[in-house]
Task: structure prediction
Amino acid sequence: MSTVTYKTNTMTLPIVENVLAQLSLQNILLVGSLLLLIIRIIGSPRNLPPGPLGFPIVGAIPRLGKESYVKFTEWTREYGNIYSVRLGGKTIVVLNDIEVAKEAFVKHANHCSDRPHIADVRIGLTVPGSLVFENGPVWKERRRWALGALRNFGVGNRSLENKINEEARYLCQEIETKAEVAFDPFHVVNNAVSNIVCSISFGERFDYADSTFEFLLLQLKELFASLGLVSAANFFPFLWHTPYKAKERQLYKTIKTFVVDIVNRHKKTFDAKDIRDMIDHYINEINQQKEKRNEIVFNPDLIWRGIQDLFQAGTETTTTTMRWIILYMLHYPEVQRKAQKEIERVFGRERTPSWEDRSELPYVRAMIMEIQRCSTPTHSNVPRCTNAEIMLKGYTIPANTQLLLNVWGLHHDPNMWDDPYKFNPMRHIEDDGKTIKKNDAFLPFGIGDRVCIGQNLAKMELFLFTVNLLQHFTFKVPDDQSPLPLNDVIVGVLRSPKPFCVSAIKC
Ligand code: HEM
Result:
């Protein structure tokens, strides 16, 4: 048996020590990034669109900053309208213009309409029963049913219009009690907007002085602000089981308990001859499916989940947009005056506004659209993922890849909008001064098979609430204050203005 003797090379040790001593943190990061690049090149699927580099483990998360959509837009200058980026352990493909958005979500709709497994939703809220997060035939059937149910409860007809106008009257009365003293419009607007989706879904509205409901809406606001679709917990799901997510766990629980209680009350008082709202409609559908022995895609124990989606999606998005509208009025008083003149010409001070007459108010509609574009509350769409390998702009996107549409980028794309960072309502009106211009890159409600199911409801709410408010009030910056800057935002699921105060002067 031979013995092998290892000799230490006494010359090499000092050299190694010397090299190690010279490695600064910067060098370590550089070497780490190079290693990551090598691993990525070797390990990632061939022909994925190239994109920005990140750090070991966390990927590019630290590079995103507070406003991820701004970074996503900056990166288009280097990487073009489609690139991939590693966030935590996941590779995401970011789509940045209308052409690539159409190719993915319209041309490849069959393969790009699933939602990915987002930890914030899967662990925090649960997916089964959801309108927003389920996939496949169950989602298709539930979406078809929900669209029909929304029509049934007035979306697109006079009964809903009356409901919104009635709520707008309550809102104006409430604002009048502020007697032109500075107030934060958040609560009243939030309550008014939520009452519309609540009356469709639960059959009830809540008084502005109802402190329990106010507390619930505050919880919802906090939840939307604390979650982000590019949040760390989505890429490191174990965080959900740590104290780091304790607050969100509690917020979800409170909102779920509220909805479950309402659903249970409906189950006890259900009468097939008197369908009061969407929950009753849901119970009725399930009963009929049982009688006809159809395949049951609606589970009575999961009714709360779809209703909670409607409540959440219908409350926070529209409230945030209405708050942006009020804030823009403070910054652009001449735009507010022009809108008020148009409203006065068509409806006067007393006549209740109507949805049917909206074609007579091109400026008001263009103003709302421009505020939606400039503020872009839904800065990125609710993420999608591929369910099969597809080719996109010559790149190969593997199955189960998360796709993120950078709506902020689309709304500020210089190829689609002149001077995109300028606020200019007239850009949405044709030269005839009446017709609303169509621009394909205007996507506040998303695109393709998963486009927002509440968009007709939301458009009606935004129009009627705005017209009612400007018919009765002029919004002004309170004395001795300056308006909240338009870029002073809170970014979570939505891009919202920080809290601000207004004075509402009676017209
Ligand atoms: C200004 C208000 C609103 C905005 C900006 C908005 C925006 C959006 C966006 C961007 C999406 C994702 C679309 C995509 O994946 O491409 C979406 C989905 C959805 N929205 Fe809205 N929304 C608004 C109001 C509403 C209202 C009032 C309701 C409820 C009645 C609602 C219910 C939903 C639902 C259920 C989905 C999921 C659709 C699906 O996955 O099939 N939204 N919304």
The radius of gyration is 26 Å. The chain has one domain: 21-506. Residues 131-132, 143, 197, 309-310, 313-314, 317-318, 321, 377-378, 381-382, 444-447, 450-454, 457-458 surround protoporphyrin IX containing FE (CB under 6 Å).
